[in-house]
Design goal:
alpha/beta, six-stranded mixed beta sheet, 10 strands, about 15% strand
Length: about 280
Amino acid sequence: MATPQPALEHIRTRVADAVGYITIDRAERFNSLDVRTAQDLRRAGLALARNDEVRVVVLSGVEGVFCSGADLKYIRAGGDAEELGYLSPAARDTPSGYGERFKQILEYLHSTIAEIRRAPKPFIAAVDGIAAAGGFGLAMCCDLVYASERAVFEWAYSRTGLSGAESSTFMLPRLVGFRRAMELVLLNPRLPARRALELGLVTDVFATETFDEEVQRIASTLGEGPAAALGVAKGLINQAAGMDRLDVHLDREIDNLTRIADGAEFAEGLDGFFAKRAPRFR
């Protein structure tokens, strides 16, 4: 007999007419990801990616926020003792190092991203509101990205002294080119939906009032399409774009971000974030 799986806490899923829906439902933390939410997102992503009855998947957030990345409040507080039980006592008890707490969240999230790219079906990011840091990377790794008029995109890592992860440093040069990618990473502008469309970060922009209906219409169209042919075409485009190197790059992102997160710049960036002041990187 199969072992019953625990219920998903902050991730909602449903399937309707061959369309799978994954919704990040953690509005009280701006749809950010702690370890449990990252685990649940991975479970949901793998389940729908490998469900032959699901021909397209839509990923979204609740209450006008797509995803704000890793939960910095959770990380600053030292994580959850039960969830971080795999760590050595020294790693759990080191107050100045945040890398290991980031690492477990990122390992689940990076696994989800790799599965999205491998899945022989389209994944749609439906971005209504802010997509920042990990949320930005999660949107960028999807095959199609639709934004509402109120959507905002921000690379955001440098605001707290981090180096970038969740596929963002891999996807950006492929989406917008080398020079624009450098601009977005080094200067970190906040991009309204129409500017993101101009840069090639999103597929299209729809009115906020009709956003859900427009995304559902596109998903239904894909769900009625030739699933096998579209899956093979996605695989060929992945190959042409060098996506076979994504897994190696994701490992590099984790290694570098966790190292940076143990340093003084991130500690200052975190303090500035919660004090609602500009960090003083010196």
